[in-house]
Design brief:
Blueprint lengths: L10 H13 L5 H9 L2 H21 L14 H18 L4 E7 L4 E5 L10 H4 L14 H13 L3 E7 L2 E10 L8 E8 L1 H51 L6 H32 L8 E4 H12 L8 E8 L3 E4 L1 H18 L5 E8 L3 E7 L32 H11 L3 E7 L3 E9 L2 H7 L1
Parallel strand pairs: 7-9
Antiparallel strand pairs: 1-2, 1-5, 3-4, 4-5, 6-8, 9-10, 10-12, 11-12
Length: 445
């Protein structure tokens, strides 16, 4: 019979050890207990010492290491064998890891744990042999050096290893005798891959929450401004129209009516953008492919944006294609072209030319929108597709920072790409490429 850490009643202690061993892969127990008990050494004494004593006692008392005459089973021997079986069960079922006992030459005295099944060679092969880097991914040259230091210093050591997308935390604790230096070391290997993955997920969730709060703040600010401006325009224009009575003011009336139309158009676009964000986030926008006459479609969009052009702004339209039909999602394509043209008009001064070039090949729809506007500063170009982002040189121009973010998402839904080049005060060129297949094959056939 052997006793664990001086306790003659082993059942409560075994139950305690089993619970703690089952919880250990989910957290760094030593660190947690250090906070609770105020001493990491105290916790090691409470948890590791009983495990050490039990396993070493089991090893030293095993049939291969003890001389026992053939005598009848006594109550003491039966109790000792029962304790051995419980310890063996705890070690064999140590979750997500390994329990090892090594001598001063780093030869194996004991191997247990659920990861035993992952070893390339059996435990029988390793028993009595020295530990090497081929034993388990958690054991490397640094780890072996750490184990040697444990014997030299008599102090516990801990390190972490990442191998083949798996993360391990290895804790080595010397097994001290009542008198003299430690002759064995207990090594606990924990597979902490799931824990680290959980920590990373929590960090990402926290970062997303932080970004969400920033976006919410920007949304409130932009929405307040963007709604207030067109509403003020409408109110002012209506007030002035009421005061222009008679045919002599026909030109002024038309001017204010045009302002009202622009303001309503702005509000409509703003609301559509907010609604589109919600639908995209919820995955409610689906691609619905259908045959589309591409040239009349683009000409219709050009007529649509005429009302928001500045004085003497011209849009030059160039169309090259041997095909009348393409197959794409009409609504998504419309959003892409309208947003790009609206930005070109908005950020270009009056009297400047804007270009819309379109090419249809056997497998690709290319749309290029070019302007000679304010351009995008080079240090801000990496952020241009982020939601609510607006360049420093565009703060005096109405906008929400949603347009290009939505365009990129629409392009992705159509399996396409979007690229741009830009120089400050020289203008920007946005190029969209959308793959085409079925409609063109139908026409070729």
């Amino acid at each position: 019979m052997f006793l664990i850490c001086g306790h003659s009643d082993t059942k409560p202690l075994f139950e305690y050890l089993l619970v703690m061993l089952m919880l250990s892969p989910l957290m760094n127990i030593s660190q947690m207990a250090c906070g609770l008990l105020g001493s990491e050494n105290l916790f090691d004494t409470l948890l590791l010492t009983p495990i050490v004593a039990g396993i070493v006692a089991a090893v030293r008392a095993s049939p291969g290491n003890r001389k026992s005459p053939k005598t009848r089973t006594t109550p003491g021997r039966a109790k000792g064998e029962r304790s051995e079986r419980i310890l063996d069960s705890i070690a064999a079922n140590f979750p997500d890891g390994l329990v090892l006992a090594l001598d001063r030459k780093l030869k194996f005295l004991f191997i247990g744990g659920t990861e035993v099944s992952t070893l390339k060679k059996s435990t029988k092969y390793w028993m009595g042999r020295g530990i090497t880097e081929n034993f388990h991914p958690s054991i490397n040259a640094n780890g072996i050096a750490q184990l040697r230091k444990v014997f030299e210093s008599g102090a516990a050591a801990e390190y972490e290893v990442v191998s083949a997308n798996q993360s391990y935390r290895v804790t080595a604790t010397p097994i001290a005798k009542e008198h003299g230096d430690a002759e064995e070391v207990l090594v606990i290997v924990r597979n902490i891959t799931a824990t680290i993955r959980l920590e990373n997920n929590l960090k990402r969730a926290q970062q997303k929450e932080k970004e969400f709060n920033i976006l919410r703040s920007r949304f409130v600010t932009l929405a307040s401004h963007e709604f207030r401006t067109p509403l003020s325009t409408i109110l002012t224009s209506v007030f002035l129209l009421e005061n222009y009575t008679g045919d002599d003011y026909e030109q002024e009336k038309l001017s204010y009516i045009d302002k009202i139309k622009r303001a309503v158009h702005s509000l409509t676009d703003l609301l559509n953008s907010f609604l589109a964000i919600g639908k995209l986030e919820e995955g409610k926008i689906k691609v619905e492919l259908a045959d589309l006459e591409i040239k009349p479609f683009l000409e219709g969009i050009l007529q649509e944006v005429v009302s928001i052009k500045k004085v003497r702004q011209d849009i030059m339209f160039k169309f090259e294609s041997d095909y009348e039909l393409i197959q794409t999602d009409k609504q998504l394509l419309r959003h892409i072209v309208v947003n790009l043209l609206t930005n070109a008009i908005k950020y270009s001064p009056a009297h400047e030319e804007i270009r819309l070039d379109t090419q249809v090949t056997s497998d690709m729809l290319l749309i290029r929108v070019e302007d000679k506007g304010t351009g995008i500063p080079e240090h801000e170009q990496s952020q241009i597709f982020k939601r609510f982002f607006r360049g420093q040189n565009a703060t005096n121009i109405d906008g929400t920072g949603l347009g290009l973010n939505l365009v990129k998402k629409y392009v992705r839904l159509l399996k396409g790409t979007i690229q741009f080049t830009s120089k400050v005060n020289k203008g920007s060129t946005f190029t969209v490429r959308i793959p085409l297949v079925r409609a063109l094959e139908k026409q070729a056939g």
